[in-house]
Design goal:
This is Probable GTP-binding protein EngB. Keywords: Cell cycle, Cell division, GTP-binding, Magnesium, Metal-binding, Nucleotide-binding, Septation. It is a single chain. This protein is an alpha/beta fold. The protein has one domain (3-212): Rossmann fold (3-Layer(aba) Sandwich). It is built from six helices and seven strands. It has helices spanning 10-21, 54-62, 104-120, 139-150, 167-181, 202-212; strands at residues 24-30, 43-48, 80-85, 89-93, 124-132, 155-160, 192-193. It has a seven-stranded mixed β-sheet with strand order 1-3-4-2-5-6-7, with helices on both faces. Helix 1 packs across helix 6. The longest helix is centred in the middle third of the chain and has 17 residues, at 104-120.
């Protein structure tokens, strides 16, 4: 069940390319529900454990180096960061979950805020749940999947850093992800495989996103 088993129409691939080639702007970093921008357009969010490569993937999608702040230091993103493509779409970078170099009280606060956002954001179309292909679906990831299930929030697994593994290893990781989502009713059946560094899977991911709006 890889992205290769799904054919995206050429027009959809092109629409995705055009969307992510459009003007994009950082809107704001938000630390509480009162700070959220108006829910006046479709919205997608990227979630994943700390250091999974969320910021790198967002930068690669937009072909920008510094749009989202990437860091080798886990837990640096402590806000919900909003980006806007024209007036068409909000792209949201969620704080990483799991290990973080921050006091426990701080981690607990932004974790609770993130979960409240996921449950209450009415215009949120889908959460793209990033999984490091070198690790596969971990117990921490499964915990987030359960949270998304309880919120009835549609989410889709995106395997990152796929260029770091051999094909046989990727096949094993993909199969593990396929088995994992069978137990989660809110999970989208299509699993994406990407590499921010090599560009692998990015046209397909853009096509998947443009179909939502």
């Amino acid at each position: 069940m890889t992205s290769d088993e799904y054919d995206y129409p050429a027009a959809q691939i092109e629409d995705g390319r055009k969307l992510f080639a459009s003007e994009v702007n950082f809107v704001k970093g938000v630390v509480n529900m009162k700070g959220l921008p108006p829910a006046d357009r479709p919205e997608i969010a990227f979630a994943g454990r700390s250091n999974v490569g969320k910021s790198s993937l967002i930068n690669a999608l937009f072909n920008r180096k510094q749009l989202a702040r990437a860091s080798g230091q886990p837990g640096r993103t402590q806000e919900i960061n909003f980006f806007s493509i024209l007036e068409d779409l909000f792209v949201v970078d969620l704080p990483g979950y799991g290990y973080a170099v921050a006091p426990k009280a701080v981690v607990d606060k932004w974790t609770a805020f993130t979960q409240t956002y996921l449950r209450g954001r009415t215009n949120l179309q889908r959460v793209f749940l990033l999984i490091d292909s070198r690790r596969g679906v971990t117990d921490v990831d499964k915990g987030i999947m359960k949270t998304l299930d309880r919120a009835a929030m549609n989410y889709q697994i995106v395997l990152t850093k796929a260029d770091k593994l051999k094909k046989s290893e990727l096949d094993d990781v993909m199969e593990g992800a396929v088995q994992a989502i069978k137990k989660h009713p809110a999970a989208h059946p299509r699993i994406m495989m990407t590499s921010s560094e090599k560009g692998m899977g990015l046209p397909e991911l853009k096509a998947e996103i443009v179909a939502l709006i």
